[in-house]
Amino acid sequence: MNICLFSVDEIEKPLSLNDERGVHILNVLHKKEGESFFAGIINGSSGIATITKITSNDIEYTFTPKNDGEKPLCPLKMIIGFPRPIQLKRLLRDMASIGVEEVFLIGTELGEKSYMKSTLSSHDAAYKMLLDGTVQAASTYIPSLSILRDLKECVSVMNRAPNASSVVLKVALDNVNPDTSLYSALKESCFGQKGVCQGGVNQKRGSVVAAIGSERGWTDNERAVFKANGFLRCGMGSRVMRTETASTVAASVIMAECGWLG
Questions:
Q1: What is d(CA 118, CA 63) in angstroms, rounded to the nearest whole number?
Q2: Strand stretches in 33-143, DSSP E
Q3: Strand runs (DSSP E) across 123-228, as ranges?
Q4: Rg of the Cα atoms in the chain
Q5: Mean pLDDT along residues 189-218
Q6: Could you tell me the CA-to-CA distances from 166 to 44, 67, 196, 201 in Å, in that order?
Q7: How many CB atoms lie under 10 A from the CB of residue 5?
Q8: In what order do the strands lie in the sheet with 76-81?
Q9: Are the C-beta atoms of residues 47 and 39 closer than 8 Å to each other?
Q10: How many CB atoms lie within 10 A of CB 261?
C-alpha cells in the first residue's frame, strides 16, 4: 500500500483500527502520533496525512493536499474478454497499476460463461481490484470500469460516449488471422514516437482502444463487429498468451510507442 486512499466523505474522519488502511498504518508502517503517511482522495488530490491522535478505536489525522494526484498515464481504453476469476484479480490490478484510463470487461462467444457469474466478477469486487492496483501505483485515479454482456453491447456503449470521436486508433488483438502486427500498426499510424504527430495521441487529445479476447479468442461474428466499427486486427507474434498476459503486453507496447512512458 504505497498510498492510503479515502473518498471525499471519508477524508479527515477518524479511521477505524479495524479498517485495512488503519491496520496497514499501525502494523506495517508502524506510524505513531505526530508522524505522517502518504494519502489521497479517490480521483482527486494527493498529499500528506498527519496523525494527531490514536485511540483504542481509531486514528485521527489531518490531511494536507500537495498536488492534483497521479492521473492515468495515458488515454488507453482496454476491452477485455472475461478471463478465469483468479486471472481477473491480477489483470485488473495490473491495468490500474500501469495507468490505463478505462476498462471494459465483456462476455465473448467463446469465453466460459460461468466466469461472468463469479463473485469476483461483480462490479464492486472488480472495482476493489482496480483500487488495489491504483494504491500500488501511488496514484489517486482509478480507471473507469464497465461490465458488459458482449462485444456488440460494448461497442454500442463506446460509440455513444461523449468522447467517442476522440478515439484515433482501435485495435483488436487476434493471432489467428491478423491484418498486421500491433507494432506495425502503431508505427504506421501517426501516434508512434517517430510518427508525423511526434508526441503521441495526447497531442491530438485522442485515445487508443485495444481489445483482447477470452482464452479461446474471437469468433468470425466478433471479427465482423470489429471490422464494421473500424478496428484493425493485430497480432503480437506466434505465441499464444493468457488473456492477462496479452493485456499487459499490449498495453505496454502501445504506451511505449505512443511515448506515454516518459
A1: 38
A2: 36-41, 46-54, 58-67, 76-81, 102-106
A3: 144-148, 167-173, 180-181, 207-212
A4: 20
A5: 65
A6: 24, 27, 18, 10
A7: 25
A8: 144-148, 102-106, 76-81, 207-212, 167-173, 232-235, 180-181
A9: yes
A10: 12
Pair 180, 232: CB distance under 8 Å: yes
Query: Minimal CA–CA distance to 76: which of 143, 2, 165?
Result: 143
Burial category of 174 from C-beta neighbours within 10 Å (exposed 0-12, middle 13-18, buried 19 and up): buried
Rounded Cα distance between 213 and 259, Å, is: 25
End-to-end CA distance of the chain: 24
Instruction: Look at residue 164 in the predicted model and tell me its pLDDT.
Output: 72
Residue 167 scores a pLDDT above 70? yes
Tell me the CA distances in angstroms from 246 to 86, 144, 184, one per residue in order: 16, 20, 17
**Which of 132, 98, 141, 146 lies closest to 253 in space, CA to CA?**
98
For residue 254, report the phi and psi dihedrals to the nearest 5 degrees: -60, -45
C-alpha cell at 105: 470487461
C-alpha cell recorded at residue 32: 505513531
Say whether 52 sits in a helix, a strand or coil. Answer: strand
**What is the rounded average pLDDT for all residues in the chain?**
89
Q: What is the pTM of this model?
A: 0.88
Look up residue 189 and give its three cell numbers: 499510424
At 73, the pLDDT band (50, 70, 90 cuts) reads low
Q: Report CA-CA distances (Å) from 196 to 29, 154, 191, 201.
A: 48, 31, 8, 11
Query: Under DSSP, is residue 138 helix (H, G, I), strand (E, B) or coil?
Result: coil
- Report DSSP state, residue 143: P
The count of C-alpha atoms lying within 13 angstroms of the C-alpha of 120, restricted to the half-sphere facing its C-beta, is 16
CA distance linking residue 124 with residue 136, whole number of Å: 19
